[in-house]
Amino acid sequence: MSYKVEEVNSCTKKFTFSFENLDLGDQITAALKEKQKSANIKGFRKGKAPLSMVEKMYGPQAKEEALNRFVQKEFFEAVDKEDVRVVGYPRFENVDLKDEKSVNFDAIVEIFPEVELKDFSKLSFTKDTVEVTDQEVEDLKKNYLGPKAEMKEIEDESVTLDKGHFAVFNFEGEKEDGEKPENMKGEEYLLEIGSGQFIPGFEDGMIGLKKGDKKTIELTFPADYHATELQDAKVKFHVELLEIKNKEFPEFTDEVAKEMGFESVEDFKTKSKENLTKQKERQVQEKLNQEILEKLIAENEFDVPLAMVAQQQDALKQDLANNLKQQGFTDDMLEEYFSKWSGDLVEKATFQVKSGLILDTLAKKYEIESTEEDFNAKIEESAGLSGLTADQVKDFYTRDPKIKQNLMYAIREEKTFKKLEEELNIK
Predict the structure, then answer these.
(1) I need a surface site. Which of 29, 177, 345, 355 has the fewest CB within 10 A?
(2) CA angle, 296 as apex, 291 and 299 as ends, to 5°?
(3) 170 in the same domain as 75
(4) pTM of the predicted model, to two decimals?
(5) In 39-131, which ranges are continuous DSSP H helix?
(6) Of the residues 227, 248, 269, which one is the last residue of a structural domain?
(7) What is residue 271's predicted lDDT score, i.e. its pLDDT?
(8) DSSP 3-state assignment of 265?
(9) Are residues 298 and 416 in the same domain?
(10) Which residue, 340, 345, 343, is CA-closest to 320?
């Protein structure tokens, strides 16, 4: 054996290679011939320069390339022989070639850790109950009727602004130094009170105003506000309420329900309650799953490959960047945001990697895999919740193999959680 293996930690190994009486002549010649094909040397047509001339110009480079090929070839052959599940790329160190006759080098590589879980049969958790109220069905009905609703001004001037009303108002923000920035002004602005569109405290500060009232609302911007110059800033907002409006919805008849894809008003209520129940059940299950993972991670300490954490962090960062850009973030704002919250991203990425490794370990223990039958059932379920046809949903998940692969992995995790719950105390 020309190498030995040393365990750095549970997810990192060090391969130490040593070769004596080594002859890299053939590899160097092969590298020179590759150089010869594209070499542009004065006095010769491209690719026609003598090998000896190519060697004079590219000898050191060819030697280095030959050595790199040899090092990588030997490393990956050793990995196959040792049956090591490699994560990311190896780090080669202490590469030492002596007179082209002997070479020593080290390869540091991360591997998938073998996760051994402690007995968890005595762990207990509480699963929330699911209930759908008539008001929630009513709110959903208003969402459907939204495009048909009319905004009408409340003529009674004694009415005071409250949650659910729409305010038409002018406002102007004033900073502590008296500055009144243009981006903190608005005229005839329409805002639904209680929608949470403005910073915390603003909408609550307007409640109780009557048409024509003026008020100064003193607030402090959140510490994580997207505009860094306003983070933790104390500001006065001078507001003038111009109108109070209500959104009036049309009567919800069987005819209107049919326009929305339901057979009748009763059919809408029945199906809406079913869908809301399924959504809440999914949310309750996700909450329970999160609590289970948090407990299992706390109870079982193990190392995770840095390469996996970095990859997951990049994925989180990309998703977050896309969302923030939709909110108006510039590249400079994104850079500052990620600089400030990088620690949180690393923590979240580490949690997700550990969660994935634990679930993978449990899936193997329970011999769980996702099947095409599972896939088709999930398509039908998604279609029922989204209002799309099964064919439309299936087309989305099958147009890109990676998208389907992610869904199959999610199905495997879902099945693993169901099996896991049988061994836990769930109240």
Answers:
(1) 177
(2) 125
(3) no
(4) 0.73
(5) 51-82
(6) 248
(7) 92
(8) helix
(9) yes
(10) 345
Q: Which residues pair with 173 in a beta bridge?
A: 237
The mean pLDDT value of the chain amounts to 90
Q: Dihedral of CA 154/158/164/168: which sign?
A: positive
Read off the pLDDT of residues 324-339 as tens digits, 9 standing for 90 and up: 888 888 888 888 888 8
- Asked if residue 120 belongs to a domain, the reply is no
Based on the fold, state whether residues 311 and 216 are members of the same structural domain: no
Q: In what order do the strands lie in the sheet with 86-98?
A: 3-9, 12-19, 102-111, 86-98
pLDDT in tens, 109-148: 999 888 999 999 899 999 999 999 999 999 999 999 988 9
365 found inside a domain: yes
Residue 376 amino acid letter: N
**pLDDT tens digit string along 227-241?**
778 888 999 999 999
Say if residues 184 and 172 touch (Cβ distance below 8 Å): yes
Query: In the chain, pLDDT over 70 holds for what percent of residues?
Result: 100
CA pseudo-torsion sign 395, 396, 400, 402: negative
Give yes or no for a contact between 296 and 358, defined as CB atoms under 8 angstroms apart: yes
Q: Specify the higher pLDDT residue, 50 or 1.
A: 50
Band of pLDDT at residue 90, cut at 50, 70 and 90: very high
Neighbouring C-beta atoms of residue 24, cutoff 10 Å:
19
CA distance 156 to 158: 5
218: helix, strand or coil: strand
Is residue 280 located within the same domain as residue 415? yes
- Write the CA distances from 390 to 267, 293, 394, 395, integer angstroms: 20, 32, 6, 8
Give the residue, 101 or 125, on which the prediction is more confident.
125
Task: Give the integer Cα–Cα distance in Å for 426 and 416.
Answer: 15
105 and 233 co-located in one domain: no
Task: Please give the C-alpha separations between residue 375 and each of 329, 389, 413, 416, in angstroms, as whole numbers.
Answer: 37, 15, 13, 15
How many C-beta neighbours within 10 Å does residue 174 have?
16
Number of domains in the chain: 3
